[in-house]
Amino acid sequence: MKRAWPVIAQSFTLKRHSVQSAKRYAGTMAHPLAAVCQMRSTADKLKNLEIVAQLAAEAKHKLATIAFFPEACDFLGESKKDIIAMAEPLTGQTVTSYKEIAVKNDIWLSLGGVHEASDNVGKIYNTHILINNEGQLVSAYRKIHLFDMDNKDTGVRLMESDYVLKGTEILPPTSTPIGRLALSICYDMRFPELSLTLRNMGAQILTYPSAFTYQTGAAHWEVMLRARAIENQCYVIAAAQTGAHNTKRVSWGHAMIVDPWGTVITQCAEKTGIAIAEIDIALLEKVRKNMPCEEHRRTDLYPRMEC
Known about the structure:
Blueprint: H1 5-11, H2 19-27, E1 33-39, H3 45-61, E2 66-69, H4 80-86, H5 93-105, E3 108-117, E4 124-131, E5 137-142, E6 148-151, E7 156-159, E8 174-176, E9 179-182, H6 192-200, E10 205-207, H7 214-232, E11 235-238, E12 240-244, E13 250-252, E14 256-258, E15 264-267, E16 273-278, H8 281-290, H9 293-296
Parallel strand pairs: 1-2, 1-12, 2-3, 9-10, 10-11
Antiparallel strand pairs: 1-16, 3-4, 4-5, 6-7, 8-9, 11-14, 12-13, 14-15
Helix pairs in contact: 1-3, 3-5
């Protein structure tokens, strides 16, 4: 991939509030701001990179300290063969460009599911990476639950295991400007054992960057995100893909941030864009204190989720 900065610099112009008004807004905020991002990836890696750069710049303009991007933010290929051919190592040009974006904007980036090349022929990893504002890759989580659907009734076939290797490790949360952040990806949200394990490891914020199918998103997206927030008394941040990526695939969208009480505090519209919210760790601690569920778990009767 060629360096994209000249294209990005020429193509992006902020269209909303002035820097001055953003600073006035931030001056009223008592807590750090997070930006949850929504985009429509295609097989055009350079175009997708431009969108990431644009949204990161907008997030910084609105004074967010961290921006969250969805699964497949690097690209969304049309075939298994294309996906494998387009995957890069974490030392490749795409991740290098993400690091440059983080430094340029002095912002942390959660990039929730890049296609990581592996040594296994014909297989890759689906990897959620976290980059700090100095351009350092501080965490990389490989998706442990793979989404396999082969529904003969609906004709929908999405078999992630055809080309993705399962991750083998649950990573401890990382300290960030908004709190202790735990990494997961999309389908992981259907497994509460994982989120409870992450809570036990000290998570204050759970992340589910996703490319949810339209049908399952309409039925389950918000319900599950709010459930994970409520049962773990954590913030949940879920960046999302949206719209038609190609002739075979449409994503639900509705990127959102949910607070530890289960309230959706911000949400993206249908198109590419960002939504901003404060992350108030004092609220989280208050929720946990006022409803001390962890003290009431009957681990004498059922196994504790081990850290």
